[in-house]
């Protein structure tokens, strides 16, 4: 899939730079959190999670083909653009290509890099599945794993240096790809922790933040 855009100048800025350099720190924090709070017996949940994740990958590839895949690619651009207050101008979806155009202000220009990378970082289906699982909590692992599988298949299907989304990032293709890889790892890590730790995730996370804060202040 090739994404076209009328925006050719590089996008990034201080906001993107701060986000980029914060990602490795977030990954380190998640690894430490896992070592402190994940119990060995909870790893058995992976026997449910991994097959359902693989099924999500397969179903996404099977169902979201051609224009459907293009639509969700452009929709991710549009959602983040709207979230930061931009005005949508036009979204075009064809069989294999698409584009999304929007008007931005001086204040929202700093978010253009995040809008450009939204198709490879926004866990749209995972968010939807979190909401769905709220009503059927007994199928929480299955539903969340399927949603993450859908997102990952779409992320990985579209990702590549040929995308204008990637090669217009300040710093070039390497910076854009590295940002995406780190961000995707964080999302996958968070979903896995949520599945393994269940309802204790938020409680343990709050305890972890308190622990880190005390360590810093001591």
Task: Give a written overview of the molecule.
- The protein is mainly α and 218 residues long.
- It has one domain (2-32, 43-210).
- The chain is built from 9 helices and 3 strands, in the order βαααββαααααα.
- It has helices at 14-37, 46-63, 67-83, 112-116, 124-135, 140-158, 164-167, 173-197, 201-217, and strands at residues 2-4, 87-93, 97-103.
- It has a 3-stranded mixed β-sheet with strand order 1-3-2, with helices on one face.
- A hairpin with a 3-residue loop joins strand 2 and strand 3.
- Helix 1 runs parallel beside helix 8, helix 2 packs across helix 6 (140-158) and helix 6 runs antiparallel to helix 8.
- The radius of gyration is 19 Å and the shape is globular.
- The N and C termini lie far apart (52 Å).
- Residues 1-7 have low confidence and may be disordered.
> What is the straight-line distance between the termini?
52 Å
Tell me the strand order in the biggest sheet.
1-3-2
Strand content: 5-15%
The biggest sheet amounts to: 3 strands, mixed
Mean pLDDT: 86
Helix content class: 55-70%
Radius of gyration: 19 Å
Series of secondary-structure elements, N-terminal to C-terminal: EHHHEEHHHHHH
| Spans where pLDDT lies below 50 across 5 or more residues | 1-7
Write the layout of secondary structure elements.
Elements: E1 2-4, H1 14-37, H2 46-63, H3 67-83, E2 87-93, E3 97-103, H4 112-116, H5 124-135, H6 140-158, H7 164-167, H8 173-197, H9 201-217
Parallel strand pairs: 1-3
Antiparallel strand pairs: 2-3
């Amino acid at each position: 899939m090739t994404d076209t855009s009328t925006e050719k100048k590089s996008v990034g800025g201080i906001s993107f730079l701060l986000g980029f350099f914060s990602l490795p720190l977030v990954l380190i924090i998640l690894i430490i959190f896992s070592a402190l709070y994940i119990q060995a017996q909870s790893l058995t949940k992976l026997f449910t999670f991994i097959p359902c994740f693989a099924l999500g990958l397969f179903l996404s590839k099977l169902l979201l083909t051609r224009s459907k895949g293009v639509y969700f690619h452009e929709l991710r651009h549009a959602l983040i653009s709207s979230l930061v207050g931009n005005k949508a101008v036009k979204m075009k979806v064809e069989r294999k290509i698409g584009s999304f155009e929007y008007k931005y202000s001086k204040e929202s220009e700093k978010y253009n890099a995040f809008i450009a990378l939204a198709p490879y970082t926004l866990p749209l289906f995972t968010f939807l599945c979190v909401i769905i699982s709220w009503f059927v909590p007994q199928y929480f692992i299955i539903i969340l794993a399927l949603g993450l599988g859908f997102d990952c298949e779409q992320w990985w299907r579209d990702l590549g240096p040929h995308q204008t989304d990637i090669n217009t990032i300040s710093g070039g293709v390497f910076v854009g790809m590295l940002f995406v890889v780190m961000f995707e790892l964080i999302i996958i890590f968070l979903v896995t922790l949520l599945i393994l730790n269940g309802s204790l995730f938020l409680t343990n996370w709050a305890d972890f933040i308190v622990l880190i804060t005390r360590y810093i202040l001591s």
